[in-house]
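Q: I have 672 residues here and want to know how they pack in 3D. Can you give me a structure?
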Amino acid sequence: MLLYHAEVVELVPGGFVGVDVFFVISGFLITGLLIRELERSGRVSLGRFYARRAKRLLPATGVVLVVTAVLTWLSVSVVQWRVFGGDIVGAALYVVNWVLAGRSVDYLAEDVGVSPVQHFWSLAVEEQFYIVWPLLLVLVGWWVRRRTHARLRPVMAVAIGVVIVPSFVISLVWTASNPAVAFFVTPTRLWELGIGAFVAIGAPLWPRVPARVAWVLGWFGLVAVVVSAVVLTEQVAWPGYAALWPTVATALVIVAGFTSGRWGAASLLAWKPAVWVGGLSYSLYLWHWPLLVTATNLWGELGGKKGLLVAAASFVPAYLSYRLVENPLRFSKGLSGSNRLSLSLGGNFTLVGVVAGLVLVLAVPTSTTNPEQGGGQGQAAGAAVLGSAATGGGPTPGSVASLAEVEWYTPGATEAVTDVPPSYARGCQQDQESTEVRVCELGDPDGAVTLVVVGDSKILQWWSAIDQIAQDQGWRIISMTKSACGFHAGMQNQGAEPYESCVGWNENVRAEILEIDPDAVLTSQRKKSALEDPTDGSTLSTDAMVEALEEHWTVLGDAGIPVIALLDNPSPGGNVYECVAENPDDLSACAFDLDEGFDGSGAPSMLDAAERVDGAQTIDMSPYLCPDGTCPPVIGNVLIYRQGTHLTDTYVRSLTDDLASLLVPAVDRAVE
């Protein structure tokens, strides 16, 4: 796993299976410990169990989280502090896997970098399992004691089966339907811990396995684990069926270890250097990831060699915390004699981690809105300043030169990503998994003119302005949008893979539009290229996108439904809100060239398609975003860009009259 995280992906592209191996081993060790106690004394001391885990895990965790908060403060843009501070709190409380799962399907979180505590997700899953599993064992022990013929281990096997089977089914279903969430959440991973627990339950049986059979099983299992790390890639849906490979293989290695002898696979794992690294593994796991993330933040992509150096360097803090924090507290006689004291110690270290995260959150600077008027969006003119004359011989409003006079702006850089239209709160954008058409209505519900607004989030960003214009003009607006999916007949890419659900959604949307038969369709999109080969994510082509747009627009035009293309806004090529946060005294450093921004947007493909389709019209709002050929980050005290290439809702609202001056005549021409 260390090699995988260190970006030596060409060697171990499936290094992520290390977590699955860890789950099986953990389930085996902890369940074995609990079973032996239950057989020895007839009960499980929950206080002693949780006290042992508290003093074993929480002190090192608290130390690492404090250091991680400091490293994040030093190496990450201020706009990320609030998010990562929350992650650190989640890691301290062992719920960060749910935080990461939620973010994985949050389209508005696409600009969030790699979390410095992302590796804590597996520890969170483990600890959530160990909150429930000992309680289940206590219940099993209580039930067995009251039935003279009941045997502990068979009943426990049934109990763990109750955990394994539903969890595995959930894993299969969620991996197929929502793999991003399935990777992180606890229900899809419990079965892996359960496999280890099942092996522990069957421990009295494994010494009966013939030595030769155990020898074969052990080496087969070990080789299978290694091969899975070499053969599997991130393109495999995970965990799902595929996770059976490394988990069952790990179980075979454990089973074989009971009788395989000196030449078995267990002998290799008993090699002294391997044992030493194994003893350090927890500390090493805690430390390596924050250091890798910090190094990447400071120096860019590390590559294999630098990644290995940083990973190797993590042995130093891992060893120090192991010797100075972990072991002294773990083997302290005073703590060993008091469960209450051990739990208190763990709780205090957890509190330290929580405080470290909260401090990072609270360190985010306050908004840069108008200090004289108490802030708020209402005091900022935005696009209304465009065309105004310069005052007192100063620079033209909206020009790059005018940025030197900007003392405040809204939304603040740290709030920009939340400055979104109300369409998101209403759930009007379909996610990237579903092909179902999600419909929302705005404007005048009794309007004489009906427009369908369709496309990805680049048309959705105009929601507030379109809604106001529609109310003023008496238009009924029907919105149909899907995350990162334009309205066309082609195949987009989704990362390195074809975006198949986008095709299905487009087919459904086009049929829906033809059935509605609106007066016109208004569309926009981010993507400028589509795949020439729908099965190959590397065959991107602008010609393919132009043809895909032309096909959809022609079908609508032939049905008497004209298309109005609201051209994609110029693309800044980076996060403007992050740039202004880092350059508060030189906002001009965040300006970019209009021509470059235009070429990097979806506008060129939309323009070319419109020229091929009779009756298609285009609307270009770039003069209101880049008034002098250069695109400033702030106009009229309003920050223009939020997530990626999207416009802030505050600036869109200030463009309502300007958009109306172009959209109203276009609709009038469409309905003539």
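Q: Anything worth noting?
A: Residues 225 and 246 are 5 Å apart (CA to CA). The first strand starts at residue 429 and ends at 430.
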